[in-house]
Design goal:
The complex is a heterodimer. Chain A is α/β, with parallel strands linked by helices. Chain A has a domain of 172 residues: P-loop containing nucleotide triphosphate hydrolases (Rossmann fold, 3-Layer(aba) Sandwich). Chain A contains 8 helices and 12 strands. In chain A, strands 6-9-10-3-11-12 form a 6-stranded mixed beta sheet, sandwiched between helices. In chain A, strand 4 and strand 5 form a beta hairpin. In chain A, helix 5 runs parallel beside helix 6. Chain A is globular. The two termini of chain A are 32 Å apart. Chain B is of the alpha/beta class. Chain B has one domain. In chain B, the strands form 2 sheets. Chain B has a 9-stranded mixed beta sheet, covered by helices on one side. The two termini of chain B are 40 Å apart. Classes of the chains: A alpha/beta, B alpha/beta. At the A-B interface, helix 2, strand 7 and helix 3 of A face helix 5 and helix 6 of B.
């Protein structure tokens, strides 16, 4: 039995008065790539935000177990320090903080030890090169005035630098053109190729999956995972849609 | 007490015209009541007693070709400034404090620039128990096509039980002749036991610019006024300021851009944060006078409220006596954005670190525009220190 990095058991979450996740179960092993697909409003982003610990989402039932420990009540930064990373669908702009300074401070915060400036610069240079980004990004203010594609690339750069155990990519492909999706997906692939990072990809589209070649594809409908399969499931949904799947499952 | 006897003592050995000027200001001063600031709950304020300021405050000696810089109290320093010393219009935080500065100044500089100067003039006051009062009077004149930067820094010993009334009252008059550029940076980082009153006025010529930067991160009571007169065609001015209030501190900012010249341009940008029981009032006036056709003015004030116990007022006002102008204002006050906080915390910052980062980041672009490295560093340190208990 492969060691499970993340186990989600019967998870139910609310936002304000509305129940979104209604008994979700999911297991992710080390180094595995999982995909969650689903129609609008199914609870995909809720799942991502709940895993990261957004204060607006309340867990009313079930457990999130990370490396054998229940993390339901951990603060956002504590989860980050355990190795959970969320690539945001809409990354926040923080004018006044350069990308480089931000990454250095974040790296120190997540790893709990401060790297020397030289060693960090070297690491950063490698990652920038790997993601085919320009070095001038580093001196710009975090996400300020970035295009949609630049913001998403920047999220992946953060993932590369912070080296999480579990990376959740929340619609990293949305709003990107075909070329940008390729660059971002190839970047993610390069990051995970050499590590045992597990990835949870949340997406509407299959373009990214062609590059990432996921181990598992899950379909999330109305707060629950209704079907799990492989890449063929993603293709099936692409050709016939969620409604067909719902009918097939008798929902 | 600010009496005639005190003034006569200060005026011995001064030139006759200066005596006459300061005595006249004293007469005005005596007739005026000490004002109240209702919004700040500052009433019955008693002005701390006069003291000499005996420390050196001019930090670099760049007096020389194309630039004249002197201590205002130097013999004959004022000779060339006769036509600039008197401002006919009322200005400043109140006439009482302006005339106090004009009659009883114990420090200050007179500066005249005739060419483009790269190195900033640096003036620095550090108040301590022996030098607890600064009443400075500054006159800065930039002649046609010249360019000058003046950085004035006010700091003090940290909180001290024995001394509860560091006192600064300043008056600064700026004249930019046609096509001149004047950059004035004022940094106030005194302890919370200090009172800070500062009145500034500028007159700007054709195609000339006056750029103000004001940093208010100290003092229990701080009242500042910047009145800028864009007098000629294409006069230009910007005022960028940051403030930070904590404890029981009270901050009053009054910024006015008087658009008189055609196509004159002004821009006010203020960013601040308040915690504990701090209070602030921001008054920003864009005043378009008749004839200021095609003039453009913008003002924006953003306040971060770090505790529910703070109080923040913003009063942006637009006066338009001329139709063909563009004026915009924006003001916002709110807590730190929950999503920004979540984003930073998801990268490992704890809540306190994330809040600190957001506050510091909002100040950074303005601090970065200060041309003196060590002052930037002092400001960053002071903000950092004051943010420890966010």
């Amino acid at each position: 039995m492969s060691e499970k990095l993340l186990k989600i058991e019967n998870l139910e979450t609310m936002i304000e008065d509305k129940k979104i996740l209604k008994g979700l179960n999911l297991e992710i092993g080390k180094g595995e790539v999982h995909v969650i697909m689903g129609p609008n409003g199914a609870g995909k982003s809720t799942l991502a935000n709940t895993l990261m610990g957004h204060p607006k989402y309340t867990i009313v039932k079930g457990d999130i177990i990370f490396e054998g420990e229940i993390i339901n009540d951990l603060r956002v930064d504590e989860r980050a320090k355990k190795g959970i990373f969320l690539s945001f669908q809409y990354p926040e702009e923080i004018p006044g903080v350069t990308v480089e300074n931000f990454l250095r401070t974040a790296k120190g915060a997540v790893s709990g030890k401060q790297m020397s400036i030289m060693a960090f610069k070297k690491l950063l240079k490698e990652k920038i090169k790997m993601l085919d980004m320009k070095e001038e990004y580093l001196s710009r203010y975090l996400n300020e005035g970035f295009s949609g594609g630049e913001k998403k690339k920047n999220e992946i750069l953060q993932m590369a630098v912070l080296e999480p155990k579990l990376a959740i990519l929340d619609e990293t492909d949305s709003g990107l053109d075909v070329d940008a999706i390729r660059i971002v997906a190839e970047g993610v692939k390069k990051i995970i190729e050499n590590t045992d990072t597990s990835v949870l990809v949340i997406t509407h589209h299959n373009k990214m999956l062609d590059y990432l070649r996921p181990d598992f594809v899950h379909v999330l409908i109305d707060g629950r995972i209704v079907k799990t399969g492989d890449m063929n499931l993603a293709k099936e949904i692409e050709s016939s849609g969620y409604e067909a799947l719902k009918n097939q499952l008798g929902e | 007490m600010y009496s005639i006897e005190l003034l006569n003592g200060l005026l011995c050995k001064k030139e006759e015209w200066i005596k006459a000027y300061r005595l006249r200001k004293f007469e005005e001063f005596e007739k005026l009541p000490v004002p109240s600031w209702k919004r700040l709950k500052l009433e019955n304020f008693s002005i701390p007693d006069f003291k000499e300021y005996r420390k050196e405050f001019l930090k670099n000696d760049i007096d020389g070709e194309g630039i004249f810089v002197k201590d205002i109290n130097d013999v004959s320093a004022l000779d060339e400034f006769k036509e600039y010393i008197d401002v006919q219009k009322s200005f400043g935080i109140s006439d009482k404090f302006v005339t106090l500065g004009e009659a009883f100044y114990n420090s200050g500089v007179v500066i005249k620039a005739a060419s483009k100067l790269k190195e900033p003039v640096r003036i620095s006051y550090s108040l301590d128990n022996e030098n607890s009062v600064v009443i400075d009077h500054n006159i800065i004149v930039a002649e046609r096509d010249s360019e000058i930067t003046v950085v004035i820094d006010y700091s003090s010993l940290s909180e001290n039980e024995e001394y509860m009334n560091f006192f600064h009252n300043g008056v600064t008059k700026v004249y930019a002749a046609d096509k001149a550029v004047v950059n004035i940076v004022k940094v106030q980082r005194m302890s919370n036991s200090a009172y800070h009153f500062d009145s500034n006025v500028a007159f700007i010529g054709r195609e000339a610019k006056v750029n103000w930067i004001s940093v208010e991160i100290g003092s229990g009571i701080s009242a500042t006024s910047f009145i800028t007169n864009l007098e000629k065609t294409a006069s230009e001015s910007s005022l960028k300021s940051i403030y930070f209030g904590d404890g029981e501190s009270r901050i009053d900012m009054q910024y006015t851009m008087n658009h008189i010249g055609m196509r004159s341009i002004s821009n006010i940008e203020t960013r601040g944060a308040l915690k504990d029981k701090a209070r602030k009032v921001f008054r920003g006036n864009l005043d378009f006078k008749k004839g200021a056709r095609k003039a453009k003015g913008e003002e924006a004030e953003y306040a971060l409220l770090l505790d529910p116990t703070v109080k923040a007022d913003a009063i942006p006002v637009l006066f338009c006596a001329e139709d063909d102008v563009q004026g915009n204002h924006a003001a916002s006050a709110g807590q730190i954005d929950e999503n920004q906080l979540f984003y930073l915390m998801s990268r490992g910052f704890n809540e306190k670190e994330a809040k600190k980062l957001i506050v510091e980041a909002s100040f950074k672009p303005i601090i970065d525009s200060i041309p003196v490295e060590d002052i930037k560093e002092s400001i960053n340190l002071e903000i950092h220190r004051r943010l420890v208990y966010v």
